[in-house]
Amino acid sequence: MREQDFEATFEELVRGRRYVFHVHTDFTDGTSSVSEYCEVVLAAGFEQLVFTEHVRRECSYRFDDYIYAVKRARAQY
After folding, report:
1. Please, what's the b/e burial string for 12-32 (b: 16 or more CB within 10 A of its CB; e: otherwise)?
2. Averaged pLDDT for residues 19-42
3. CB 49 within 8 A of CB 20
């Protein structure tokens, strides 16, 4: 994705909406799963949730598993 496209998409995501930004799941430094965060955010009336996991030189988790969890939660919630 080009930088311009990313900026436009990000701006559309957050403009005028209630969102939770900068969340770490139990894949990295957090203690809750992707689904648990989705449930809490939805119950609290937020419209968007933005995960910001840490990716270090060596990934301590399977990135594909993380992406799958996010996609599954997106479809469910």
Report:
1. eeeeeeeeeeeeebebbebee
2. 92
3. yes
